[in-house]
Structures are given as structure tokens and as C-alpha cells.
Write a structure and sequence with these properties.
transmembrane helix, globular, transmembrane, ten-stranded antiparallel sheet, alpha+beta, 8 helices, two-stranded antiparallel ribbon
Length: 363
């Protein structure tokens, strides 16, 4: 059985980190699929700070958005808490100041919520593994030795593909296995970017391109594969959205952006049971600004409906790709809505697709 319910949320968070950072001085890479991010500093020659998976293979606790770590309510005033509660209740019933998703998006998300409960979760028998396979493409923004870091147009921008496979045992306290492979860059937004990217790729050693890691209980660096506390999440969609708002630490540009990011992460983690996934879809539908952007979106050969939101402070849009008929989350993508100094408008600058199945053995 193939299911698109996903790997650790950290892998997807790294994609967003690459886009959200957008200051022009970072060369992002995968956390899970290709290692922690790398930063290129200007100088006589590029200096690459590379925290490889060999040292830090799993970084679920090291987020762009600290809200993924939160295990308690934010330290907010009573007045602010009351305002959040009013907004959540209002959005749940469609009468809040911003409302929720459009009627079309809400209908499709409700359809997905109903279908995900009817679609059986994969059963992992004794000595079997849940295999979560990911294909991801991340935008990379690099500053070379002769570039002006203050001039965004001087950056080298290209897309970096990768793959990742996680094997989760039936007994979650047992040994988990994670394989990751960084692939050769294949999409470039300038000739200079192509030269730069292929030169960087040429100098990567075998251990930087691929690796296999093992850890009991999925704690590859002492932290859980999924940073969220699933047991703390309410089953009621309105209360669930309120939970995400209240446990945000302000790392995103808005509570709505934070909630959308975290809901997407949990959906694709592979750990949320069907009832929680259904509640997550319904909570997603309560977020203001969510709309259907493409009725037939293809992601790595799979077709679904693209439902997304562009935060007013961003020049890109965040989409999830859903199959409403089955309730499966096919993947996620980022689309550059407004052209910047390097990337044309309406360009997909990152995406991740995921398939999950049960296997009898792990590497």
C-alpha cells in the first residue's frame, strides 16, 4: 500500500527555511535528506560551513520556527489570549474578521478529512517497518567570492534535489534506519549558478552525498523524529487550531503562517493517526486566506488538488497537494508568486513528495 503521509517534519521545515531566510547569504541543504544547512560566506574563496549528518543526522529540535518545539502555551497576556480565542471561534464558524478558507477549499479539505478516516492506516506487523520515502527539491541561494552580498541579483540560485528513506520499526522503541542521498543539481536560474552549483557538487565527497544512520526510538540526535507532541493535540478542529496559535513562539511572520506550516508537518510525519489527520485538515480549513490554487496539480507523477496560502508579508505561496478522494497528502510545494532578482514569477522553487508503505526489512 502506498500512502502519502510523509516523513519527519524537519525535512519539510528545512525547505521552508531555505525560502523564508531569503537574505541571500545562505546555501541551504536538506536536514533529513541531505544534511543540515550550509552557509556560504564571502571571501577570497567560498567558505562552506557544513554540519554533516554524520555529526548531526537528525535536527528535529533545531527549527527555523521555534514553535515546532513548544510544549507549553506561549507567555502571552490574558488580553492577547482572549483575542486569540475569539478569532479562533469566529473563524471556526466563518464569522471572524478574516474568515477561514474559501468555500471551495473548505469543501475539498472536508472531503479529504472524511476520506482519510475511511482509508485504513498501514498495519506494521512484528519485525516489519513503515518505509517513508521522500523526493525533495530545495531552492539554494549562494553567494560566491566575487559577489556583493548586498546585491541580491548577484546570487547564484539553483534547485537541489535529494531523496530520503526512513524505516520505522513496528516497535517504535527499536532501531530506526534513515538513508539520505543528495542528488546532482539540475535546475539553474543563470549560467553563473550552473557553473557554481556543478563545481560545488564536484567537490562533495561520497560521505557528503549519501549516508545511512541508525538510532533507537528514532532519536538520531537525542531528539524525537517528530518535534510536535501529538498527545497534546485536541481532536476538535477549532480547539486544534487554537492549540497551534497558542503554542506559536512567533517564529513565523503570522500565527496563520505558523499554523499552516506545523499542520503540514504533522500531516506528512507518518505518525498522526487517521482521526488526528482528519482534524488537521479541518483546522487547516479554518485558516484565513487558504484557497484552491490548482484543481489538477502534478507532483512527482502524482495528481491532486493544490490548496495554498500566501502570507501578506511574503512574495511566495505555500501549497499542499491533496487527493480529496483518498485523503492522502501527496506533498507540498513553494511557488514564487512575485518575481525577485533571480527567479521569475510563478516558478516552483521547492517541493516534496512522499510515499509510505510497509516492508519486511530495513538496510
Amino acid at each position: 500500500m502506498n500512502r502519502s503521509i510523509g516523513p519527519s517534519d524537519t525535512q519539510i521545515d528545512q525547505m521552508r527555511e531555505n525560502v523564508f531566510a531569503r537574505i541571500g547569504e545562505s546555501l541551504p541543504a536538506l536536514e533529513h535528506a541531505a544534511g543540515r544547512s550550509r552557509q556560504v560566506l564571502e571571501g577570497p574563496t567560498p567558505i562552506v560551513l557544513d554540519r554533516r549528518p554524520e555529526a548531526t543526522p537528525h535536527a528535529a529540535q533545531k527549527r527555523r520556527n521555534g514553535s515546532f518545539l513548544t510544549r507549553r502555551l506561549s507567555a502571552i497576556s490574558l488580553a492577547a489570549a482572549a483575542l486569540v480565542a475569539i478569532l479562533v471561534i469566529g473563524n471556526a464558524f466563518g464569522w471572524g474578521p478574516s474568515g477561514g478558507a474559501t468555500a471551495e477549499a473548505a469543501s475539498l479539505l472536508e472531503q479529504a478529512a472524511v476520506a482519510t478516516i475511511q482509508t485504513s492506516d498501514p498495519t506494521v506487523g512484528p519485525d516489519q517497518f513503515l518505509q517513508i520515502s521522500t523526493h525533495a527539491v530545495f531552492a539554494t541561494y549562494a553567494v560566491g567570492p566575487n559577489d556583493d552580498p548586498k546585491n541580491l541579483a548577484s546570487r547564484s540560485v539553483f534547485l537541489t534535489p535529494s531523496t530520503s528513506t526512513l524505516y520505522m520499526p513496528a516497535d517504535k522503541s527499536g532501531e530506526w534506519v534513515w538513508q539520505r542521498t543528495a542528488l546532482k543539481p539540475d535546475t539553474f536560474f543563470s549560467e553563473k549558478a550552473k557553473v557554481y552549483a556543478l563545481d560545488q557538487w564536484k567537490h562533495l565527497g561520497p560521505d557528503e552525498r549519501t549516508g545511512t544512520f541508525r538510532a533507537p526510538d528514532g532519536n538520531f540526535d537525542g531528539s524525537p523524529w517528530l518535534g510536535e507532541d501529538l498527545a497534546a493535540m485536541p481532536s476538535d478542529p477549532g480547539a486544534l487550531l487554537s492549540y497551534f496559535y497558542e503554542t506559536s513562539n512567533g517564529g513565523s511572520n503570522s500565527p496563520e503562517e505558523n499554523a499552516m506550516v506545523r499542520i503540514s508537518d504533522v500531516l506528512r510525519s507518518g505518525l498522526a493517526p487517521a482521526e488526528l489527520r482528519a482534524a488537521l485538515y479541518r483546522a487547516f480549513a479554518m485558516i484565513p486566506g487558504v484557497t484552491v490554487v490548482e484543481r489538477s496539480a502534478t507532483l512527482n507523477g502524482q495528481v491532486g488538488v493544490a490548496i495554498g496560502r500566501q502570507d501578506p508579508t511574503r512574495d511566495f505561496r505555500q501549497d499542499i497537494i491533496v487527493d480529496p478522494a483518498t485523503g492522502l497528502l501527496i506533498g507540498e510545494r513553494q511557488v514564487q508568486v512575485k518575481a525577485d532578482a533571480n527567479v521569475p514569477a510563478n516558478t516552483v522553487i521547492g517541493w516534496t513528495s512522499v510515499t509510505t508503505t510497509v516492508v519486511d526489512s530495513a538496510p
